Amino acid sequence: MLVRGKYILTSAEPEEIFDGAFRVKDGVISEIGKWEELNSKFPEEPVSGKKNDIIIPGLINVHGHFSESLITGIAEQYTLWEWIQALVGRAAPVLDYEMAYFGTLLSGIQMIQSGVTLVNDMFVYDPFHSKNATPGVVKALEELRLRGVVSFGAGDIRSGISIKKLLKEHEVLADAAENSKLCTFSVGIAAVRVQSPKLFDESINFCKNGNFSAHIHLQEIREEVTAVRNDEGLTPIQYCSKKGLFDNPTVAAHCVWIDGDDTRILSEQSVGVAHNPISNMILASGICPVAELRSLGVNVGIGIDGAGSNDSQDMLQSIKITPLLQRVKKLQATALSSRDTFHMATIEGAKVLGVEKYLGSLEVGKRADFVILDGDSPVLANIHDPFQAVVYCAGKTEVKEVWVDGENIFKDGKVTNVSTYEVVKHSKSQAVKLVEAAGLSNLSTLKN
Measuring CA to CA, how many Å separate 421 from each of 117, 380, 427? Predict the structure, then answer.
């Protein structure tokens, strides 16, 4: 088929094709150029997109937690460490397979509605149940036809769960991802001091022995940096480097409280950073120095973060907030441009996750993951600069179609592969079950 639009924003060279189009064959972009040329060459092929639309690569959410999908909109009064104790720490022991499955469906639908085609997830829970929960994430992503890099956020300091059992959860999730068409596995490390030194060493060994990437929270708040400095005489980033974690590809979420030495390590060891502007504001964590990181060659992508800390799972909100927050931090209108922000949400996010060879931009030979934005909507009626239009103007109502691997997974306001009504209905009962089992009634009014 052909895909056409008034603007094709490629996140490659050229960055913008006016009145452009590309051809999709067997889930891959086979040709790209001007609409008239491709239409003349392939006059009989079906066409998606209209002459006023904006076509963009699928958006990449580089950090999130499907484990929080059923605890959205509560606990606003806490900063991060308090929030972990009051909310996540209570929910983690009672999360199960069904909660993982329906929670992923619920958050995944919201992500697709905002143009996401790939999510990097860390499911944080305590695997006390006999049935492992994390494969429920993979099952839901497969049904949605949403790509995922999936990990289990292992920690033993709070839970006291055996290292053997935690490593088994990694193995089970890795097997589920191996048998999935759209998911790949990464080793989750909740944070440096959430794991005992032995588990941290075992996590690094798991990465190296399996040739897996790692996904970790790093230097999200000042207290985290102080605690590790007191114990090790190093920042968490310096500690991870010393222990060899960064020998494998690593995604570091947040990186708010970092200094020049930390930034140099991230740059020299090619660590990708997941910037989560909305959750950093909600939890009063601070502002990631995005411009400084990018100026030193660190790839920085944009994350939605979990539904317990964002709380919306809307990627377009996170994209808009990203340059605005940098402008507030620096009091400069040039702190971060819409064009750079767009790249962070697409090709730079792909580089953070190590998938830039086949995702993140609209180029010949890459997978056909793309989003059609409605150029006939009131919001996009007058496009003076397409990058500013996408970053500052577009919202979920402008997302007309979402495609993954050349398959239409969102059209006419609905995901195409699951029933939103059924997902919402089942999520309600699962959320009540979670609130009651976790003892969260003091934070929630949710009832049967």
Answer: 21, 29, 10
pLDDT-based confidence at residue 441 (cuts at 50, 70, 90) = confident
For the residues 254-269, what does the mean pLDDT come to? 97
The answer to whether residues 291 and 252 touch, using CB atoms and an 8 Å cutoff, is no
Query: What span, in angstroms and rounded, lies between the C-alpha atoms of 314 and 23?
Result: 29
Q: Is 281 strand, coil or helix?
A: helix
**CA neighbor of 355 nearest in space, from 97, 149, 138, 80:** 149
Peptide bond before 127: cis, by omega within 30 degrees of 0? no
Instruction: Indicate the DSSP class of residue 382.
Output: S
**DSSP 8-state assignment for residue 58:** P
End-to-end CA distance of the chain: 48
The Cα 88–Cα 74 span in angstroms is 11
278-309 pLDDT, tens digit each: 999 999 999 999 999 999 999 999 999 999 99
CA neighbor of 143 nearest in space, from 183, 105, 186: 105
User: Angle, nearest 10°, between helix axes 420-438 and 97-113?
Assistant: 130
Q: Please confirm whether the linkage preceding 311 is cis (ω < 30° from 0).
A: yes
For the question of whether the overall pTM of this predicted structure is more than 0.90, the answer is yes
Closest residue by Cα to residue 98 from 63, 69, 65? 69
User: What per-residue confidence (pLDDT) applies to 446?
Assistant: 66
Amino acid at 132: N
pLDDT at 448: 53
- pLDDT tens digits, residue range 205-214? 999 999 999 9
d(Cα 200, Cα 441) in Å, to the nearest integer?
A: 34
Query: Per the structure block, which two tokens stand in for 111?
Result: 């992500």
